[in-house]
Amino acid sequence: MSTNFSPGRRTCALTVAIASMCLPAFVSAGTIVGWGDDMFGEVSGTPAGDDFTAISAGAFFGLALRSDGSLEGWGINWYNVALVPPGNDYIAIAAGGFHALALKQDGSIVAWGFNGHGECEPPSGGGFVAIAAGNGTSFALHSDGWLVAWGRNQDAPAGSYLAIDCDVFDAQAEIKLALRTDGSIVQVGSGPTPPTGGGFIAIAAGHSHGLAQRGNGSLVVWGGGSPPAGNDFIAIAAGTFDAALRADGSLCAWGGGNEYGEMNPPSGGGFQALSVGVYFGLALAASSTTPVIRRHPQGCAAIVGDQVDFSVVATGQPPLTYQWRKDGVALSDAGGVSGTTTANLTIFPAQTEQSGAYDVIVTNAYGSATSHPATLTVGTCLSPVITTGPTGGAVLEGGTLSLSVIADGIPPLDYQWRKDGQHLSDGGHYAGTTTATFTIHPVQRDDA
Lower CB density within 10 Å: C or N end of the chain? Predict the structure, then answer.
């Protein structure tokens, strides 16, 4: 998440976690378009239909997920990698060098293709939410935030994470990337060092380099070619070259030699997802003209009197109309609230009663789409401030002592009472150790 806390202003920015080859939540059913190298039918062999919701480009093959939960495979079929397993309960896919992974609705993982390093032997059980496949390496993210890797490179950093990816091309330079919950990047494997700090919302591992998207929509590359300028990017992909999707639905590519036309993605707009293999790329073109929300508003905290800005990016057959809501009730321009029927909502000056859940409905002649709710919390201060502290006193042994504190700050406020610097917990004659009022009964001599 990227939030600007400059004095007097709160900018609520997008938060997205693009995990592995899984696609962003804004993807609707569409058709597959390919470009670049077609030696093994990676481009010409894309399956027909307009019901695809996810795509993944491997070394020389492609995978796709249909809206009914079934899989399609095409391109080179070494080790039967393009021969997908049956079933219609899949929710995500990841194509690697010569093996592939699929994530089922129950959170379990299925693998097939080349298994020379154990890359097709996923952990048992469910609970996984994202997958990534490299060249002999497999990578997965659990719903609890921890990572697991198997195959050639089994290193998995400890911690809590939001997204993962790993390189699909060069086994000697293969890297794994993980996005922490604080928006910082962890890299496993040798190679150029990723940028420090937080604020990143998407990652992509390429051939000996990495690519990341900041919360403001701009791109950064380490170990590869310079990315295009701008802050309107909403999805990224990396391989031997890099590609990105802009908010207007157009594609761009850079960093490759263009020997196979990989630098020439299809022109125009209407694209909503992409994936990059070795010398080819895949894109998903929306088959519907109904609105699609590309960037959702993001909640934030503000101080009374600040300016708060919410924004949404949506595409679809124009004209698009907007209606912002608070707690499900339509807003109108009044009382310091403006832009209620535009893509940008402004609240100034913010008041405590304006705390709540904000969303926006985007509509055109073909339908509508509703954004994710963004929670706004308005208080008199951000960090807790104790306005009235507890007062000590003398109490007879066997009596009752109640200590209270009054604090202000952005809720929720957490409390932890201590004695001589040591945390206390409820039990025995202690009560309320994590509330605003702490009680001791009956008071004992060692409570002094």
Answer: C
pLDDT at 409 over 90: no
Compute the Cα dihedral for 31, 84, 76, 91 and give only its sign: positive
Phi (first) and psi of residue 147, to 5 degrees? -115, 155
The predicted structure's pLDDT at residue 172: 55
Residue 49 buriedness (CB in 10 A; 0-12 / 13-18 / 19+): middle
Percent of the chain with pLDDT over 70: 92
The Cα 307–Cα 351 span in angstroms is: 10
CA distances from 81 to 113, 197, 244, 280 (A): 4, 38, 26, 17
Question: What single DSSP character describes residue 340?
Answer: T
56, HSE (Cβ side, Cα atoms, 13 Å)? 40
Neighbouring CB atoms inside 10 A of 139's CB total 32
CA–CA separation, 355 and 387 (whole Å): 22
- Please count the other Cβ atoms lying within 10 Å of the Cβ belonging to residue 399: 11
Token readout for 72 is 């399609």
